[in-house]
């Protein structure tokens, strides 16, 4: 304790919010944000001297005259009258009436607040936070305290560390702005009991210190630090009884009203009596809680001890393995263990898994149910028991039924049969050769979404050493299906994240998909081999570029190209239109779309490889018809409703067409040639190669967000043109440079879309020759093919997708490498082949001849032309 401090009779007041009460001898941290306290602390912060701590009066707030608009919930107080300050001691020389009037010392005729038009320096710098505290909200008694430290916090707030010195009673308020100042009467804390009263309260002090020692013993059970325990011990033995009572009331769970009562009690005997009563109550509550917990733990410990004795006796009698005898106690945990053992036996585990599970089961029996390890082991054994180690669904080998099912799902029209012939054929071969899997429709189905999976543990599971460990997606799926031969759909396998500090999930998939390894797949959680060889894995991907080669090698790739307009027409007529009509609450026949309407939607609004956009457009048309039905029904003119959708209605419903016949409307210009591309989404598309020349030094500039491969194709094309410039009649002599004093710029529009690949080789060389010779290539003629430095034309991929995209765009003539003829004749639907003329070429000279000669005469009557090399 510090030396006695002289406390003035007038104190600046610091209102205490949040039902906070400061008692003498207690050090406390207070955060202040109300306006009047901020004004006071700003001044004290400027003149703060660590050697001469300022003294303020900390006074609780018992009610509010008006709710605060800023922090109302924090400042609401119960309106109470100040209780008696004397306790039961009749010898008190400063006794108050038994029922004290509500703040009687605050004289009602207090001065008015300063005129707002005449602001002091502090008022000019108004503080944020709560409004000023009214004197009517203050408690009758407070605690004089020295400010030991001041800190700024947040926006305009302060934190102060104060030490309570003595109680005081508010006599009157002598200042209200910019902060409160009150005239007070002090009640100093006695450092020792006076001789006159020593005999009266000596026994009371001894009883209180004994009670404090008992309370300290309970606090030691919390395993507090040794230094803190020693400090508390010194306080209990050496601190004055008044200070000890104040400290303990602050520590225990006392209510706000009880602490106010302690603050206004000026007699030591009354304070000791109140504090002793509240500490006794606290000890009683703590003992009840401790006894309840101890009773529960003791019961569990006795059960565990008796169970261990029972096991030892049964081992002596040779009855150790009897599950019925183990369960004779009727314990719930024993029932769970017995049931778990029976489930493990019924699971027909492999030898290795059975041995491991029995070892874990015996370990579970030795563990106490209250331990965390008991729950971990039980969860693990339940997972093992629920897995379909030997449970399979029955396969029915019926090739005819499988064929009929595929035809029914994908329709048997000529276009769709050709479109899905390869896929259907492969599935039928799979069913025919591998009898153990039969038809997928008789098996359980589970989908695993791999998009965004970046943790190897998502595939292999977490090891049981981690908190909250779980099996991986594969084992979890098997557990959910309940059989060991389901069909797993690995959706979006191309979007699985690559290697990171979480591991490589694609590497984990190697063991899952490798038929030579997946019969002993080991999940980290199970730590047991599980046979995945009976599972049928079907993976989907939009592109193969992002799939690691090692993983791709474990799979058989079956490409699914885009739909033709005829196929989209049938799909819309058979599936999409009826589906949308039903989903929008209409009946069959309420919306009728003719074939020309569906084709106009597909050609003008949704040029895509699939039918998602087509379905959305059809849904928009159906919704428009729903609105029309509702409006006519409100008007009572339902008989006027017209279910047919006309082509002329589409513009009102879907807006202006997004795609027009761009190819037919393009003008034939030297240096512009139409090419074909294969997109990363697995569909085809058209692109335009544009070339222009300008004065320069023979440089080649390439733009359009081109990749390295297509840039190399442009360099090869330029070299070939320079080599054969005289033959092409682009120069007057064989030794002349066709690019002398000329720069060439090649651009591919749609500059924000990345483009790469070798298939634009013949298109670029044709564009260069067209530019330098002034000859034109019809915009309805497209081409694709890779070139070599010697002028040979090499085959490219994605022929079917490119041809279908060209058909959608209105291309009439396509120049294709000769070695791609088999792809055109075998993969492209006949309906598309009948509407396009194909020219198969072997050299760049053949390409140029066919690209330019078509301008001289009419279109060839034959649909397939094989050109012999001419250059």
Characteristic terms for this protein:
41% helix; five-stranded mixed barrel; 871 residues; Archaeosine Trna-guanine Transglycosylase, Chain: A, domain 4
Task: Describe the 3D structure.
This protein has 871 residues and is α/β, with parallel strands linked by helices. A hairpin with a 3-residue loop joins strand 4 (141-153) and strand 5. The chain starts with 9 loop residues before the first strand and ends in a 5-residue tail after the last strand. The radius of gyration is 46 Å and the shape is elongated. The protein folds into six domains: 10-64 and 128-188, LON domain-like (Archaeosine Trna-guanine Transglycosylase, Chain: A, domain 4, Roll), CATH 2.30.130; 204-294, no CATH class; 343-386; 399-554, P-loop containing nucleotide triphosphate hydrolases (Rossmann fold, 3-Layer(aba) Sandwich); 565-654, Orthogonal Bundle (Helicase, Ruva Protein, domain 3); 672-851, 2-Layer Sandwich (Ribosomal Protein S5, domain 2), CATH 3.30.230.10. The chain has 29 helices and 23 strands. Helix 6 packs across helix 8 (268-317). Strands 16-17-15-14-18-21-22-23 form an eight-stranded mixed β-sheet. It has a five-stranded mixed beta barrel with strand order 1-3-4-5-6.
